[in-house]
Amino acid sequence: MRKLLFVIAALVGFAGVGMAQVPAAQEVNPPAGSLKAADRLAEVMNLKGQMGGGFEALMPMIKGMADSMMLAPDERTALESTFRQWYLEDFDHAKILAETVKLYASTFTEEELIVLAEFYTTPAGRKALTVMPELMKRSVVMAAAESRAKQEQLKVRLDRLFTEKVSLALEPKAGQRGKN
């Protein structure tokens, strides 16, 4: 069970660190026309519905962590259940949707948003909306597998980095030689 708690803490901490540097959408004030066009795009793309499937995109990462931690079946189930409950019950999906719309509105011009919405109403656009979540999920699985396969190389690089940092920290600073 201690392993399970560690995995949960690590995943939550990792997600928090990665997002800490992303500016909040409420800090941006896009033009009203862009907001309206972004709302339309969100509707055409069914972003609200896609958010419900967002948890499924996390599952390969959660399962990969469970595999690497060699969790017992009951621990694996508990891990997945905890993350699912956290995502479904604690996330403010309406807030995330509103911020996502603002993000689109501040990233694309009104004209670009209109063109994107038009594209997503075409057969190719509808297909993209249908297959993209699965493609993203599969790419996450591939990236996780590659990451696990290259852990030793990362360890070597990190060991070298920390060894250099420790060496530099132990070297006497200019003007400090001979002082104890």
Please provide a written account of the structure.
- By secondary structure, the protein is an all-alpha fold.
- The chain has one domain.
- It is 79% helix and 0% strand.
- It has 9 helices and no strands.
- The chain has helices spanning 2-19, 32-45, 47-52, 54-68, 73-90, 93-107, 110-119, 123-149, 151-170.
- The radius of gyration is 22 Å and the shape is extended.
- It starts with a helix and ends in a 10-residue tail after the last helix.
- Residues 1-7 and 16-20 have low confidence and may be disordered.
SSE layout:
Elements: H1 2-19, H2 32-45, H3 47-52, H4 54-68, H5 73-90, H6 93-107, H7 110-119, H8 123-149, H9 151-170
Helix pairs in contact: 1-5, 2-6, 2-7, 4-5, 4-8
Q: What structural keywords apply?
A:
extended; 180 residues; mainly alpha; 9 helices; 79% helix
Helix residue percentage = over 70%
Largest sheet: none
Run of helices and strands = HHHHHHHHH
Intertermini distance = 47 Å
Mean pLDDT across residues = 81
Shape: extended
Number of helices: 9
